[in-house]
Design goal:
The protein starts with 9 loop residues before the first helix and ends with a helix. Strands 1, 2, 3, 4, 5, 6, 9 and 10 form an 8-stranded mixed sheet that branches. By secondary structure, the chain is of the alpha/beta class. The protein has 2 domains: 10-186, Glucose Oxidase, domain 1 (3-Layer(bba) Sandwich); 193-237, no CATH class. The chain is elongated, with a radius of gyration of 20 Å. Helix 4 packs parallel to helix 5 (130-136). The chain has 7 helices and 10 strands.
């Protein structure tokens, strides 16, 4: 059964847009979550700014010749139909099983996603028509490019269901943050806590970096020992950290 997409508070988007995926993986690691970085999802455009959105999931399975045909593109269960269900602001997260010799989307589908206000496409697969995809303006994180269409190696089966993307379990409405280091998943149920801890982690690391720039040594500073924690808290209380 498909899950209805949920909106994401613009304040959370704004806050997480200033938090690196590196920081998020550290915060999630402290909460016991190690497998949150989507392997293989790299920005197609190197200068792509960080983006945040709820996951709208799509799933492919291995190609089966009677199902993976050009005619299937007009089926009610198709990537075309899934795109029309995507809400503005979502991040389309596509399970392509790491297949790299069949492009899941090309320029026309990406243009439609961009027109609908989709924030980004993140996949462990590849896209086709790279020049055209870049021209659409849709931000894409993927494993690269391939000329053959999706049906050359994949069968599309569902959207808004749990998937595995880059070795990570992604559920509809989880939150994705993607930047130059890749894409990281924040479980929906942990979102508020992770946001709060990430802001504090960024503040602490900013203070540590300033200490490093002033010549401080790493031992006892990163991570901070009790003495340095006390100094940090004191400067934070004064608005200096």
């Amino acid at each position: 059964m498909n899950v209805d997409p949920l909106p994401l508070d613009p304040k959370i988007v704004e806050t997480l847009s200033a938090v690196t995926t590196a920081t998020l993986t550290t915060v999630l690691l402290k909460k016991g979550l190690r497998n949150v970085w989507l392997r293989g999802a790299r920005p197609l455009w190197s200068e792509q700014p960080r983006l945040v959105g709820r996951a709208f999931t799509l799933r492919f399975v291995p190609a089966r010749e009677d199902l993976a045909t050009p005619e299937s593109w007009g089926s009610p269960i198709s990537t075309r139909a899934a795109i029309e269900a995507m809400p503005a602001g979502c991040i389309a997260v596509v399970d392509a099983m790491g297949v790299t010799d069949a492009g899941i989307f090309g320029d026309i589908l990406c243009a439609r996603m961009n027109k609908r206000g989709v924030a980004a496409l993140v996949t462990d697969g590849v896209v086709r028509d790279v020049a055209g995809v870049l021209a659409t303006g849709l931000p894409v994180w993927c494993r690269g490019a391939a000329a053959p269409p999706s049906v050359a190696g994949l069968t599309f089966v569902a959207w808004q269901q749990p998937i595995g993307c880059g070795g990570v379990a992604v559920f509809p409405n989880d939150v994705i943050v993607a930047d130059a280091d890749g894409a990281v998943l924040i479980p929906a149920a942990l979102l508020d806590d992770v946001v709060a801890q990430s802001v504090e982690q960024e503040r602490l690391e900013g203070w540590i970096m300033r200490e490093i720039e002033q010549g401080a040594a790493l031992p006892g500073l990163y991570p901070p020992n009790a003495e340095n924690k006390a100094r940090y808290e004191a400067e934070r209380a004064k608005g200096k950290a």
